[in-house]
Amino acid sequence: MSSAKEVKPAKNIKGTVELPADKSISHRAALFAALHESTSHISNFSAAADPQSTLACLRQLGIEIEAKGQDLSIKGKGRYGFNEPEEPLDCGNSGTTMRLLSGIVGGAGVNCTLTGDESLSARTMKRIIDPLRAMGIDIYGREDNFAPLKISRKDPVKALHFELPIPSAQLKSCVLLAGLYGKNTTSVIETIPSRDHTERLLQLPIELKKDRKIIGSDNSMVIPEQSYRIPNDFSAAAFWLVAGSIHKQGSVRLTDVGINPSRTAALKILQKMGAEISMVKENREAIEPFANLHITGSTLQPVTITEKLVPNLIDEIPILAIAMLFAEGTSTIRGAEELRHKETDRLSALSDMLKKAGASFKEMEDGLEIHGDPKFVPRPASYNSYHDHRIAMSAAILASKGSEPSKVKGGECTDISYPGFWEDLKMLTN
Ligand code: S3P
Known about the structure:
By secondary structure, this protein is α+β, with helices and mostly antiparallel strands.
């Protein structure tokens, strides 16, 4: 049952948060551990609903997973070790599960169907259907675009030389994972960088040219064991980085946060805006680097975000829009049309939120123009989450700056990436 969460005005925001584990890395750690030939031990695996959907699908495919709290042992069975599932694989709300798993089951030739919830069933899958078909995989979707996806394969996997038409890490990963089943090398060409967890964790060969990166995969490549501790989620950290900076006396400490450069463009943007964020205990040697972050109340300046930067802060745009509301002047986000294809149309959801708050802004086809004011006080409102976790959390941080309580409808959807979000908000604002 959907319920509304109440957010009271916060006088302050202060404390140390134990963030959820990184969602993108959790999905990949589990999937790649299943492809490895023996057991991987993963610690700090995310308890959020999306990565748990990936685990449930792997179990349906016959992979044994032992969980002790957030520590997992996954008995990998190699690239071809999957059973044909009796029931459709339910990817829940998770685009990463559906798109990455399609590459794997398609490559492995597992006869199966992938389904998802209402939101996932409305998200385009054409972007993966076309390249997977070109690789010889039989993949069919509703209207040749949407889940349920029916996947099987009769012919050997054909190598593909694929220049990414959109800078999407899910699409890049899907093609590279299917490529792991081909005799000849599949190469994915990336001109605008997106998150690189797949390349890192699978240790795929990379050729760096002046204006492009070429990543390869084929069936001779050994899948490494996936035994490591997953850092905490930078995308979850971003909510507190903004909350800590827009509250005058804010002081928030975040521990073991993933600082992979392909994920942290929002940190650079916030620093450019004048946010006082310090980084301590950096560990850049780890396969996925991490550090502790400390943010204090700051005076923010406006900023412009352009297309090239969008993939490295795609999930942080909703909360960056909230930061922009409190900057001294006009900020702009352009080249972010992809936000219309997320769990909901995030540009339109943001417009609805800003309108309800009484903000001054303009929605564009590919972004937003936001007229900020450090003295802005959002009107009390009943915000709609559109069942989108990042919209719900952004609305909550916005509402914390109000002078009266507000509501976030369907607020429990934060469990998709951040179980415990509402408790953390309460703890920080008490
Ligand atoms: C993700 C990639 C991004 C991001 C999503 C997670 C991933 O999606 O928005 O939350 O783990 O690869 P796209 O690849 O569609 O941009």
